[in-house]
Amino acid sequence: MNVYRYVFAATCPSDGDQIIYGLEVRSVERIMVERIKEVCAEWPQGFQEDIAADLVKQLGGEVTLRAQHQGVEIVTMLGSATKEPA
């Protein structure tokens, strides 16, 4: 099992706040760190749930995306650590 962690920022399209996301990807497959950074950079703006859905689609594995927004902690968990990207 491989575990990858990365921190990135994206703007909330609803109120313009910059949100700092903590990403964790668990996978039995190797994921190149350059690919993780590339996929995250495709999201300069977006809602957390949409970002997480795209990350699991592009990277595969089990994705957990965490953030604080307006005092609310949001944790989105999608995918399976044994599945490859689509």
Give the arrangement of secondary structure elements.
Blueprint: E1 2-11, E2 18-27, H1 33-41, H2 48-59, E3 62-69, E4 72-79
Antiparallel strand pairs: 1-2, 2-3, 3-4
Helix pairs in contact: 1-2
List the main descriptive attributes of the protein structure presented here.
4-stranded antiparallel β-sheet, 24% helix, 86 residues, alpha+beta, globular, 2 helices, 4 strands, GTP Cyclohydrolase I, domain 2
Protein architecture, described:
The model has no long low-confidence stretch (mean pLDDT about 95). The protein is α+β, with helices and mostly antiparallel strands and about 90 residues long. A hairpin with a 6-residue loop joins strand 1 (about 1-10) and strand 2. The chain is about 25% helix and about 40% strand. It has two helices and four strands; from the N terminus they run ββααββ. The protein has a single domain, classed as GTP Cyclohydrolase I, domain 2 (2-Layer Sandwich), CATH 3.30.1130. The chain has a four-stranded antiparallel sheet, covered by helices on one side. The chain has helices at about 35-40, 50-60; strands spanning about 1-10, 20-25, 60-70, 70-80. The protein starts with a strand and ends in a 7-residue tail after the last strand.
